[in-house]
Design goal:
This protein is mainly alpha-helical. The chain folds into two domains: 80 residues, Orthogonal Bundle (434 Repressor (Amino-terminal Domain)); 35 residues. The protein is built from seven helices and no strands. The protein is flat, with a radius of gyration of 20 Å. The termini are far apart.
Amino acid sequence: MTADLQQQNTRTELRRTTRVAVGAAIRTAYTGLYTQTELAKRVGVAQNTLSRWTTGEVEPSLSDLIAIEDACELPRGHILRSAGLVEEIGTPEQAIATDHRLDRSRRQLLLAAYHAALGQSKS
């Protein structure tokens, strides 16, 4: 197998895994609130479309995910976070402090620049 074909297979498998994770997060979001048919009506899609999303057969758009979150009264990004696709970083300071790509001196420099841009002194 060529390297290009291996990369293509890896990308295809990653997309499938992502679709399945999003589908599971969608199911979790509406389970206990609505049937699949009820949620599909609220979101404005056919029941078989929602079914294909939940099985990972088809990837919903971001606007579809927002419509599901709205229907289930969930905060924005809930489904992607539940699927493990979005990581909470908290404040910019927390993001800088936990960035493993930065050594200590670069981390301090970046924090100082961030605080200077905000007009704050370093604590």
